[in-house]
Amino acid sequence: MDLQVGQHSWCGTPVDRGGWIDAMSTIGLSCRFDASHSGQSTASYLHAGEMLIGRFELAGQTVSPNLRAPGYRAVDEIRLLIVRSGSMSVEQKGRSLRAGPGDIVLTDPSFEFEESFREPTALSIVRMTKTSLRARGLAHRLHSGCEPVPIGADVSAVRELVLNLTAQVGRASESLLKRMSAQCIDLMDVLLKPSHAAFARRSGATIVWLARQAIARRIGDASLDVPSLAADVNVSPSGLSRAFKAEGLSVMRYAYALRIAHAGRLLSEAPDLMIRHVADQCGFLNAAHFSRAFKDHHGVTPREFAQRRRANRAPRACESVRE
């Protein structure tokens, strides 16, 4: 009889040691328990977009990458671990690393290493694919299996973002977690410290993709311009303009069209919104400028557009009342 039944919980389900070991293998990890140390272990995680995000509490066990896990490609991922409480030690080819509360560790499962948790240790973990990092023109390789991240002001800010993201598992909607995870991946350059050479090798298509993501995030920012957008994606303003021109686009015309499209969605979903509020949410300096731009694109003013959407909704509302 396994006296450890009930001490471990995997996504809310009680498991014994054997069940815990099997569950860990499903996320690419091998696990063995330490006979001289014990404690409760819990795992709560989910897949959100291109990330796996979760909160783990580990005690009395040693964990290592499982490159032979069925249907799992650990070699194509980078993991980020934040120690919330307790401590962990990492051993790799005679090199030791210890991490305590607040420390951040990056790991690459394509290397061999072991993570030991003797005392109860709480972790926030995010796992991202190297493919998703490469697509953004970010560094996607580590020099070893485990690297500590020096803590600075920017790193601390990203750490708080990751801690908040993992704290929302089981609380926030899946769609919101997916959006938050995408933002998190976009900020990994702060932790991965890519070289200037890596940025220089990025294709024009990658630069445009990154810029489109940045424009979408700053859709309500009236100060958006080519220099600030270029700074967001770590390229020169001329380099950004050339990348867009190669795809037959203009940076600001694209941003302009995205704002108008966003305004149309807002007015379609909530036709009673005040026009000045829509203008503000879409990055226009004032309602008059927004109205002129909107009419040039749609052929009607925002107010007329909203009235038509409101009128189209009315018959359906009446029908539902009659039913």
Automatic annotation (TrEMBL):
Domain of life according to the entry: Bacteria
Domain HTH araC/xylS-type: 209-308
GO MF, any single term: DNA-binding transcription factor activity
Matching PROSITE patterns: HTH_ARAC_FAMILY_2 (PS01124)
Coiled coil: none
UniProt entry keywords in alphabetical sequence: DNA-binding, Transcription, Transcription regulation
Matching PANTHER family: ARAC SUBFAMILY, HTH-TYPE TRANSCRIPTIONAL ACTIVATOR RHAS-RELATED
Protein name (record): HTH-type transcriptional activator RhaR
Species annotation: Paraburkholderia solisilvae
Highest classification ranks of the organism: Bacteria, Pseudomonadati, Pseudomonadota, Betaproteobacteria, Burkholderiales
Gene name of the record: rhaR_5
